[in-house]
Amino acid sequence: MVSSLKSCEIRVDEPLSLHTSFKIGGRCDSFVIPESIDGIKSVLNFVNQNKLPLLVIGNGTNLLFPDDKFSGIVMQIGEPYFCDVDAIHESYLRVGAGISISRLLEVAVEKGLSGLEFMSGIPGTLGGAITMNAGAQRKRIGEVIERVKVINRKGEIYWIEHKEIGFGYRESRFKHSVPYSAGQEEFEIILSAELKLKRGDPCRIKARIQEIVKVRKSRLPLEFPSAGCVFKNPEDKIAGELIELASCKGLRIGDAQVSTLHANFIVNLEKATYKDVKALISEVQRKVYQKFKVSLDPELIIL
Ligand SMILES: Cc1cc2nc3c(=O)[nH]c(=O)nc-3n(C[C@H](O)[C@H](O)[C@H](O)COP(=O)(O)OP(=O)(O)OC[C@H]3O[C@@H](n4cnc5c(N)ncnc54)[C@H](O)[C@@H]3O)c2cc1C
User: Ligand 1: does its nearest atom lie under 6 Å from the Cβ of 178?
Assistant: First the structure.
């Protein structure tokens, strides 16, 4: 029984649309929010014993869930848990994986630490950002990550050094175990990370963050639910430009629409479904390939 889980908030038959920025997704058998490492261990034991699939999420800002029921457990690592911040050196922070990027930026300002400003306006948690190697302005979070503390499927806890994380363009070793099924060897949940930043003037850091957020507000369709950029940029090209030149801006299937403001965003106008978004992704890929012979690779995680 899922109610036997220790140190977790548990919600049965929870709609996943409540936990994704796209506002799309069917229900899951159980949605659990561990409050401590014991909570995570208890979930791992439970899924291993009962051979259930497990999906770890942060704030669900880069995910597209099916409309059908997910028969398994979805575990969220997010605020208010796993959010501790420790200054371990004058420019090193140890931070819990559940902290939101916006809160992490506030901490950076409070402590006068620079080097994360490029993450301004990116929603989600630190754990999600590390998994996706999220970034903007030609910078990625992996550049400031020294090492990451994880727990594996057996409940073993250890650190992984930067060079072992496999950071690439929207890539890391953590991306490849979604969702986890019992017995699968490679599976690690991020618990915390050490970040190497630089000393900086708090006023200047804050001003830079505000400037970036302002620009993002004017360029991105933030008034609609979405999961950010849908496609990775192909080598030497910008996906949004190709999509626009292939006349896809405004293209609509059901309530899913290629944003009229930013062509690499698909927005949920109101009641878009998984099927609408998937069909629109395929149509954009088809049109871009037809015009440029370029295959667009999705950036968001489609389950
Ligand atoms: C409006 C908007 C703008 C965006 N702009 C950008 C942008 O500029 N740049 C950019 O890179 N992205 C952008 N994104 C995408 C998204 O915000 C990032 O990818 C973000 O880092 C995902 O974090 P999350 O916590 O929401 O992760 P989720 O979407 O919840 O999960 C993403 C992946 O991380 C895994 N994961 C999450 N937490 C953990 C953990 N603790 N341990 C192991 N695995 C974990 C999940 O299993 C999943 O595979 C944007 C999204 C939106 C909605």
Answer: yes
Ligand 1 touching residue 189 (CB < 6 A): yes
Q: How far is CA 270 from the centre of its chain?
A: 22
The reply to whether ligand 1 has any atom less than 6 angstroms from the CB of 57 is yes
Helices 101-111 and 202-219 meet at what angle, rounded to 10? Answer: 150
264: CATH: 3.90.78.10
Cα 1 to Cα 152: distance, rounded to the nearest angstrom? 22
Question: What are 6-64's pLDDT values in tens digits?
Answer: 899 999 999 999 999 999 999 999 999 999 999 999 999 999 999 899 999 999 999 99
Q: Which are the contacts of 215, defined by CB distance < 8 A and separation ≥ 6?
A: none
The answer to whether residue 111 sits within a structural domain is yes
Cβ of 300 less than 6 Å from ligand 1: no
Question: Best mutation site among 55, 57, 223, 232 for ligand 1, i.e. most ligand atoms within 8 A of its Cβ?
Answer: 57
Print the domain residue range for 252: 239-302
Total domain count, the chain: 3
Q: What CATH number is given to the structural domain containing 54?
A: 3.30.43.10
Q: Which atom of ligand 1 is nearest to the CA of 133?
A: 11
Question: Do the domain assignments include residue 167?
Answer: yes
Residue 76 Cα: closest atom of ligand 1: 38
The residue type at 61: T
pLDDT tens-digit map of 140-194: 999 999 999 999 989 999 999 999 999 999 999 998 766 777 667 788 999 999 9
Question: Do 121 and 42 share a structural domain?
Answer: no
